[in-house]
Amino acid sequence: MLQIKKTLTLAVAASTLAIAAPALAQDSGATIGFIGGFTGPIESLTPPIFAGAELVVKQVNEQGGILGGELKLLSADGACDATAAAAAADRLINTDNVTGIVGALCTGETIGAFNGSGLSGNVVFISPASSAPALTTLDDNDLVYRTTPSDALQGVKLANLLLSKGINDIAITYVNNDYGKGFADAVSAAFTAGGGTVAANLAHEEGKADYRAELGNLVASQNLVILAYANASGNTILRQAVESGNFTTYVGGDGMVGNDLLNGIDAAAVEGLIATRAGAPSGESVDIYNGFASDAFKADATYAPQAYDAAFLMALAIEKNGSTSRDGLSAALRDVSSAPGEIIRPGEWQKAVELIKAGTDINYEGAGGSLDFDAAGDVDGIIVELAVEGGAFVEKGLID
């Protein structure tokens, strides 16, 4: 992806992480927000993603803070729902007066939060997990970014992976929202272009207890692709598909990657289940992140590296911008995330601050890879294959 520099100049209560020396002045520092689905269909995936952002705050404050003070992180539950996310964003932006937002996670959640208060508040959003292609075309005044690749890429990689395994026909069921439809469209187009047959491609509604009728319309193929969420319809559909005995191969996308997916399901019945999610290339930045992240939470947790990168970039942009003003933050974000500049790796906060104060350009190389945002705020990336082995997801490697 070409580098493009700046082209435009249970419910969970709010939680605060502030680790800093008590002598810091109250009129210094910065506060950022985090919106994620602490409840709802991705509630098992959200805690480690949030932990990735929390880790940045801890490191920043241990290394001298931001703008001469402490960095604070306030969280709000978006419930993977546009309406709930809009309310969460309104509080963080208009009451708590955060400078920027890490999040949201589900694509509809991000769009709802941003359209609700983000655009009018001139607030930069950096999502670590919103992967639907719909975000690329959002009218956002250069304010919405993401540190994970679009499902336009993940869909192609998943389709190619299945074809490479000799799977030549599939039936797709997808959750009826921006994430599900965008992902399904990408998989279907790429699979067909590669010579495969999509026997069925049908939406399903979230929150139902019984999907047997929907599954009855998918039996034209024994290879079932479920594009949904582990804590919600993904689990129910997978369980009822296994019970039906009509399918032999099961496939999921990133929203299905969580051990909660297998609740109530005989693990042996889904041994070898194929899945995909965003990954990271090998290299120094990834090794550094994996070293310290493993002490705080599972380093390979889905979207935790991307959340770490989103929070680190937000902090770098605020420091580069020189104030907690929202004006100019988008341009500062583009400056710190791409060449030219001295490379900054995960954890190197003090080094970055010293270079910024010296007027030296920096280029953050993150836990999830390079983060050269294009004009739409998207990044290139890689997709990895996972499989269920022995009742748990195991990463198998990069998908070519």
From TrEMBL:
The keyword Signal applies. Gene3D superfamilies: 3.40.50.2300. One of its GO terms (biological process) is amino acid transport. InterPro entries: BCAA_transport, Leu-bd, Leu_Ile_Val-bd, Peripla_BP_I. Residues 31-337 form the Leucine-binding protein domain. Keywords: Amino-acid transport, Signal, Transport. Residues 1-25 form the signal peptide. PANTHER family: LEUCINE-SPECIFIC-BINDING PROTEIN, PERIPLASMIC BINDING PROTEIN OF ABC TRANSPORTER FOR NATURAL AMINO ACIDS. Belongs to the leucine-binding protein family. This is Leu/Ile/Val-binding protein. It comes from Devosia equisanguinis. The gene is livJ.
